[in-house]
Amino acid sequence: MKVKGAAYCITDGHERIRIGPEEDIFIMGFKYIAFALLIVPVLTQVPPGAPVITGPQIIIFGQQVTLTCTVTDGQPTPTVKWLRDNVVIDETYTISGNTVVNTYSFQASSQEHLEVFECQSENGVLQNPLSRTIFVEVYRSPNQPTLTGPTQVAPGTPTTWTCRSEGGYPIQTMTMRIGNSQFSSNQFTTNTQFIQTSESYTVVGTLTFPPSLANNGQTLFCDVRHTDTLTAPQTVSLPLRVISPLSVTAPNTFYNPAETETVSLICVVTAGNPTQIRWYKNSQLLPVNGRFSGGTVSGPALTISGVVMSDAGTYICEATDGSATVRTNNIQLSPIERSVSEFDIITSILNGYNKLVRPIDPVNNVTHSLIPKETIEFDPKTLRFEAMQCISWNDPRLSWPRGQPRVSLPSSEIWLPDIVMLGQEVMHDFEAKAIVMKNGDVTYCPQGVIKSTNCEEKSGSVWECNFKFLSWSYDKVMLDIHFPSVLTRPSIDMAIYYQHEEYEIVSQCAVRREMSYPCRVGTYPELTYTFVIRRRRSFCTNLNASPTCN
């Protein structure tokens, strides 16, 4: 049964329960409260205000810089962070009421130059964070300028000085002055270049002007101004000396005196006041002493007494006043050679010559060779040759610089190596002369009879005979004997040998040994010349049976 004005609700599917108007009102109120609880959180989320950046846009290199980003309002409280090149560099901030502040500090360097700093704030209400940026320029003072150029000049000579300033940003300005007088743009110009790698400017100033004597003792200044970073200009200076130029000249640049004459090489100071005169020969400083005189401030000319051929060369006169050094043109000296006779050469080389003293200490190198001329006598035990010994060595005392290439001297007048034949005194048929060359090479070829008593029969009518030579008094340390080089002459020269009618020389050889003797101290070079001789017979034809020299 339904009652009018009442509501029914089925419970558990079997029973209806009546609900009246009072219960309807209660249920409606409950539903409203639930809806309100769901919508209130959405209505209280508020986006933050736009970031506000405070801080300098132009900063000075090395300066401590602070950039402040301020954000107000926002529910929930927003975060505030700094970024550079899309990279977070600071995300710390402070909250005061409804204001959030992030303060970022750094020391200005070249890395911050022309950089963009970005401040972002967000609290999740908006899809993207709010952002503000600031563009920063780093102003840099230029490096200390440099001023280059001469400090001493001749009056009236156009001269150039260069001032250089690097590393400034923005552009620095440059001026130059002498004392307090500024140079005009006709005399001083600048060239400015932006260096991309350092993002800075380089300014090069060039000053060209001819100083006068009135400028002597004044100072050149280069001033670089950079008002963005410096309160006073950067200044560099050079002292200036303007003096009369030093000048020397050589009126004559060629001299050809004869040997033994005296000659003066003229040097004239035409301007200035030198404090020193120097002479050079072949680019080497010439000591002025002995045969050389002059070369002073009061007498600049160089005088050479007793000219010799070695004085030939290129001479230069140099003058200096302590600050400037000048030179003459090249002065050529070409002495005329005086003719030298054989008398002059022999007189010169034998003057003071001591034939008892070896030419070279500690060792003399001597070559020895044998030139047989004729077989005088042969029996089975003895062989006698008419022969020449050719002995060569160098004696620097017997050299001369010019003239004929060689002279002939009696062997009794010079030192001779005491080479003797072992077991026999060599008898010379006359005093052989020695041939002496210009460089001191001596060749001595005495001729005489040499006899070998050391002949040994080898086979049938074949004999082997030896001749041994050595120094009588000098060992190897003092006199070393060798055979001549194959390129100069053979150790045994048979070119002029006159064949014997009964005996013929089948072979010959020379051997050098170093020997010690019981009665002497030291080692002695010993030269052995061996000859193989046979009788001229028709049946003696087998040369292969002849002994060889070993």
From TrEMBL:
Its main location: membrane. This is CHRNA3. Residues 41-131, 142-237, 245-334 form the Ig-like domain. It is a single-pass membrane protein. The keyword Transmembrane applies. It is found in: Membrane. GO terms for cellular component: membrane. PANTHER family: NEUROMUSCULIN, ISOFORM E, SIDESTEP PROTEIN. The keyword Transmembrane helix applies. The chain crosses the membrane at residues 25-44. InterPro entries: CD80_C2-set, Ig-like_dom, Ig-like_dom_sf, Ig-like_fold, Ig_sub, Ig_sub2, Neur_chan_lig-bd, Neur_chan_lig-bd_sf. The lineage of its organism: Eukaryota, Metazoa, Spiralia, Lophotrochozoa, Mollusca. It comes from Mytilus edulis. Keywords: Disulfide bond, Membrane, Transmembrane, Transmembrane helix. One of its GO terms (molecular function) is extracellular ligand-gated monoatomic ion channel activity.
